[in-house]
Write a sequence for this structure.
């Protein structure tokens, strides 16, 4: 934590010295960009089902009487009309005179729905449509259903199973929204380009004047990774356009000598500049301008925006200087569990009451955890967790338990008792899904435990039991609290880092090995000079995906076009291209040619799964050219450094790059990408293995020997015998020398 605070302090100090300033008075009239074309405010109607809004509790009973429907309203939208559409059924045992269903909107009672007596079963649910007051709409909104249910006026047991009401899963809300013309102010940033109130996937167009150079691509990749980190679980896509006028919220990159047509008369800048304007054709569409005297300044403008937007005000900010930002250490991504020390649960929380639950059936305590995927877990019992918790169980709640789950699967349980201590301590282990040495031999069945290759959900669920004390009553509900203490820790500092590669599952889900350094300091990405919009979109979606994984912008990613002078010895490499597109006019003995020829061989093996020999190479090349829409992700060892890796993302056509983009931002697709190569087409994903395994990382030499020979006991036994013989020989020789020395001393 101290190290993180120090790093943050250095960053803020560097940005404070950057001296963000308002731009000078423009040389020409910018009024057209202030308000845009004064068209009528566009409106849209959204119908959101309860399921889409994350509701998972549709049944209410005598104890768990309440369910919630949460939805949001964007900063640049105003709610004009809100309608609640729902239906429900209820227990025929409920008494209509005293039973009812209350509906609240933002804590305002809207209506009370009756519970009618029934002598026969309900044949059809009755639908209800309620108009809610749009003036009550806020940024974050909540509809609450609350059941008041009685089946007996004298002998009432709230725990009786005869008390229930169930909402239909087809229930929904209909929200009609009108766009607002926001002021062009950096104070709102990242809104409206990204709005935390919007739970849908972020789609933010990036607009260039023409094909961008390396510096512009690095600037765009840095910004997309930053937006990807903000979007987090929502995911993010970045459509690419050339020389277009924005019609929605967009980002535009421009230099003094290279501007889209709609900015041709826009004033030049002398420093890296960030500015927000309105689209000249769409008043309600805001445009984030990334401006520079040259393309190098575009990168400076993006870095300044990413690390210093909180101190930017007004419509324009220019950056005089950015001091050196500190390098990231290995495995210190903000969203990863640190590998150098024990980490407290307090460091994982996203809101103040996340570690607390209330009620007999309260919400479980959930923590999202990402680990370095190369933790060496061979023959480890699991990841140690020092758990501290407190509870206030009801009287005689002897059946109360605290259940531990990983990814919604039960792992362990602890009995809750009335302890004299304020906090109960428990040392346990979170089991692991072992991946060591199995990159090419994964089984298609679920294993319970932490999967280091992806984000995990650690759940602690307090279940308070109830003892019935009479014919009509049970221990009354109320006062049930459970708290996981923030001082609880999870510790992976005792694990080495060693992993079998290629393993595309850790690449697709964790971005490894490139995310070993969150800023991608030791990664070079190679792509074609005149890349298509689809290829650049793949680049931006990929870096956005990495930002989601690490929570940090990839501002040290090095992007290069093929060049015979490139030095690739000490870099992890990413290649984005079409087959053979990068090899034109390159010397055969250049490092880049060696890399691309190796990649071509791997891609050919992936497509034909080794069903050819070297004599068929020309036939294979002809076949590749005739392929349709196909994407290939392949991983292999760097031909320049045995400790470095290469992952290529190859598409047979420009449109095929969309297959790769979609596969990287959809969880159901990334789960299917495994092994050393994945072939992606419109029918699905096929995983194959095309190259030998290699290992990266470090473990002690004795562990290394035992690990690699653990599947070969006879070889291990032979080695053990040889080692014993060698030790015996050395001891024999030593004893002989000592004996000789003693005899020679006796003769004297």
């Amino acid at each position: 934590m101290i190290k993180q605070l120090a790093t943050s302090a250095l960053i803020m100090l560097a940005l404070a010295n950057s001296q963000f300033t308002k731009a000078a008075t423009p040389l020409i009239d910018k009024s057209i960009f202030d308000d845009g074309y004064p068209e009528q405010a566009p409106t849209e109607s959204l119908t959101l089902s309860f399921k889409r809004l994350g509701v998972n509790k549709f049944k209410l009973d005598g104890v768990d009487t309440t369910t919630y429907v949460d939805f949001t309203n964007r900063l640049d939208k105003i709610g004009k009309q809100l309608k609640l559409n729902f239906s429900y059924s209820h227990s025929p045992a409920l008494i209509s005179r005293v039973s009812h269903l209350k509906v609240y909107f933002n804590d305002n009672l809207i209506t009370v729905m009756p519970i009618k007596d029934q002598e026969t079963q309900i044949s059809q649910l009755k639908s209800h449509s309620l108009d809610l007051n749009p003036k009550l709409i806020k940024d974050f909104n909540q509809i609450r259903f609350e059941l008041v249910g009685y089946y007996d006026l004298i002998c009432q047991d709230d725990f009786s199973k005869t008390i229930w009401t169930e909402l239909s899963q087809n229930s929904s809300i209909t929200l009609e929204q009108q766009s607002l013309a926001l002021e062009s102010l950096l104070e709102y940033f990242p809104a409206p380009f990204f709005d935390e109130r919007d739970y849908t996937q972020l789609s933010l167009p990036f607009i260039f004047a023409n094909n961008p150079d390396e510096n512009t691509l690095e600037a765009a990749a840095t910004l997309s990774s930053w937006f990807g980190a903000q979007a987090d679980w929502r995911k993010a896509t970045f459509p690419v356009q050339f020389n277009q006028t924005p019609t929605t919220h967009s980002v535009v990159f421009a230099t003094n000598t290279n501007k889209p047509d709609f900015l041709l008369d826009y004033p030049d800048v002398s420093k890296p500049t960030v500015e927000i304007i309105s689209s000249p054709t769409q008043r309600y569409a805001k445009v984030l301008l990334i401006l520079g005297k040259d393309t190098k300044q575009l990168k400076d403008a993006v870095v300044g925006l990413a690390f210093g937007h909180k101190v930017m005000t007004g419509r324009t900010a220019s950056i005089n200087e950015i001091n050196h930002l500190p390098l990231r250490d290995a495995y210190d991504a903000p969203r990863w569990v640190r590998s150098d020390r024990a980490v407290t649960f307090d460091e994982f929380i996203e809101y103040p009451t996340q570690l607390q639950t209330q009620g007999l059936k309260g919400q479980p305590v959930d923590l999202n955890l990402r680990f370095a995927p190369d933790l060496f877990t061979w023959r480890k019992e699991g990841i140690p967790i020092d758990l501290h918790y407190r509870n206030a169980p009801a009287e005689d709640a002897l059946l109360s338990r605290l259940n531990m789950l990983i990814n919604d699967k039960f792992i362990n349980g602890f009995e809750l008792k009335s302890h004299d201590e304020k906090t109960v301590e428990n040392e346990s282990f979170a089991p692991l899904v072992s991946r060591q040495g199995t990159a090419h031999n994964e089984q298609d069945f679920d294993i319970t435990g932490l999967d280091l290759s992806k984000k995990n959900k650690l759940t602690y669920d307090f279940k308070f039991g109830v003892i019935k004390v009479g014919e009509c009553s049970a221990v009354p509900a109320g006062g049930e609290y459970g708290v996981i203490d923030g001082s609880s820790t999870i510790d992976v500092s005792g694990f080495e880092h060693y992993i079998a590669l290629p393993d595309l599952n850790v690449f697709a889900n964790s971005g490894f090995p490139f995310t070993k350094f969150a800023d991608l300091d030791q990664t070079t990405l190679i792509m074609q000079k005149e890349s298509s919009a689809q290829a650049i979109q793949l680049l931006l979606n990929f870096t956005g995906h990495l930002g989601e994984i690490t929570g940090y912008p990839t501002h040290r990613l090095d992007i290069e076009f093929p060049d015979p002078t490139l030095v690739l010895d000490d870099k992890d490499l990413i290649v984005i291209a079409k087959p053979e597109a990068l090899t034109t006019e390159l010397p055969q003995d250049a490092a880049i040619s060696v890399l691309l020829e190796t990649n071509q061989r791997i891609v050919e093996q992936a497509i034909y799964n080794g069903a050819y020999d070297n004599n068929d190479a020309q036939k294979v090349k002809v076949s590749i050219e005739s392929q349709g829409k196909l994407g290939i992700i392949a991983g292999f060892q760097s031909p320049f450094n045995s400790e470095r890796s290469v992952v290529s993302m190859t598409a047979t056509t420009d449109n095929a790059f969309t297959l790769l983009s979609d596969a990287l931002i959809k969880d159901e697709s990334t789960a299917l990408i495994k092994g050393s190569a994945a072939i992606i087409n419109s029918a699905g994903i096929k995983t194959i293995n095309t190259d030998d395994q290699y290992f990266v990382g470090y473990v002690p030499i004795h562990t290394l020997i035992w690990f690699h020979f653990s599947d070969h006991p006879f070889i291990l036994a032979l080695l053990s015998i040889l080692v014993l013989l060698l030790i015996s020989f050395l001891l024999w020789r030593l004893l002989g020398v000592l004996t000789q020395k003693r005899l020679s001393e006796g003769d004297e």
The chain has twelve helices and 37 strands. The first strand starts at residue 43 and ends at 49. Confidence is low (pLDDT under 50) at residues 1-27, 438-446, 610-624. The CA atoms of residues 569 and 641 lie 6 Å apart.
